[in-house]
Design a protein that fits this description.
about 350 residues, alpha+beta, 2 domains, 18 strands
């Protein structure tokens, strides 16, 4: 274990690399010219940035979405012993802290007996001591968190990953819904009296419904690429009053495990990506002076290191089950709870990745 735990200590020194990077080239399962479907966003549809000199970039999976896909692995199988398993029971539903929208800063956490503990952990991190948060919610350090509704503590992402497609062509698609029976024509239903009635028939599938010109996916002429980074320079700033090296090793182990994890390439309906066999995978150490050195760590090696670092740090995986409190939630809404109302205009959005 001694050799394993010291293996990456050079990365934790100021002379070490500023970051690790992975660049993976991907293709749809249908092939390089296959059609894939990016996510759609309100008001803009596909997120495609056009450049004046020509060319464009389309977002396939955002940094937050990628984090949401990776973080839950720490609740399963061989990964579960690496982090505390905090489960919040609300009626018949149980939510793992790893699934909470804003991680340790989520409302569901504030409405439990963990409220004070989490608050003190965030305040300690502001003062440079990240050990309390690492013992409660270490993935909030790995993937970043913002306690936007209370202490305002912010933890930057140590691990970030994004998938983009380049020089894309947009497609359109059309469809026609045909009901199983001609309900109106056969007298099974009366003619709709007005537009509201016709819309109701349409919504319930009793009349023909055309759909023309909707989003039909894209073809990525310039390829698809996943770019991931692990910010070691940021990780080296993590502090712990008693044993900062053990803390940094522990967080590095989790970060490396997440960074090297290759999950399912299925992102959504119509978007299933695999490695491009024509191009290699790039894994590099990046130094402050611009040097790039090839790295070779595998996911199995990262996991072995993470286990050793977790043992040294003294992780208690639990599980620990706490109850959601409606009373705490009501006080939080009215501004009577601990730390409530610190920021009346809280940030909106999904899980911070």
């Amino acid at each position: 274990m001694e050799n394993t735990i010291k293996r990456f200590d050079s990365w934790l020194e100021d002379s070490g690399p500023a970051a690790l990077t992975i660049r993976e080239h991907l293709v749809p399962i249908e092939g390089p010219d296959g059609v894939l479907f990016p996510p759609t966003f309100v008001d803009i549809g596909y997120n495609i940035d056009e450049f004046p000199q020509g060319g464009n970039v389309c977002l396939i999976d955002s940094v937050g979405s990628q984090a949401n896909r990776i973080e839950p692995i720490f609740a399963k199988g061989e990964y579960a012993s690496l982090v505390p398993q905090v489960q919040i029971r609300a009626g018949e539903k149980v939510v793992n802290l790893l699934e909470a929208g804003h991680r340790a800063g989520d409302a569901v956490v504030r409405c439990t007996e963990l409220q004070s503990q989490v608050r003190e952990a965030f305040l300690a991190s502001v003062k440079g001591n990240h050990e309390p948060l690492a013992r409660l919610a270490p993935t909030s350090i790995v993937f970043g968190a913002w306690d936007s509704r209370d202490t305002q503590a912010k933890l930057p992402r140590l691990v970030a990953s994004t998938i983009r497609a380049y020089n894309v062509r947009k497609l359109k698609r059309s469809a026609q819904y045909i009901p199983a029976l001609p309900y109106v024509e056969d007298g099974l239903l009366p003619e709709p009296a007005d537009k509201a009635a016709k819309d109701a028939y349409s919504e319930r599938g009793f009349i023909h419904v055309p759909a023309a010109g909707s989003h039909g996916g894209i073809i990525a002429d310039g390829g698809i690429r996943r770019d991931a980074s692990l910010h070691l320079a940021c990780l080296r700033l993590l502090g712990d009053g008693e044993n900062p090296l053990a803390l940094r090793r522990y967080i590095l182990g989790l970060a490396l495990t997440a960074f090297t994890y290759s999950g399912s390439g299925y992102l959504r309906q119509g978007c299933h990506l695999v490695a491009d066999p024509r191009k290699g995978r790039e894994f590099q150490e990046v130094y402050g002076d611009g040097r790039r050195v090839d790295a070779t760590i595998t996911h199995a090696e990262a996991l072995e290191y993470a286990r050793a670092a977790a043992q040294e740090f003294g992780v208690d995986p639990g599980p620990r089950v706490v109850e959601f409190s409606t009373e705490r939630a009501q006080k939080d809404v009215t501004g009577e709870g601990e730390g409530a109302g610190k920021k009346k205009k809280a940030a909106k959005g999904g899980k911070q990745g």
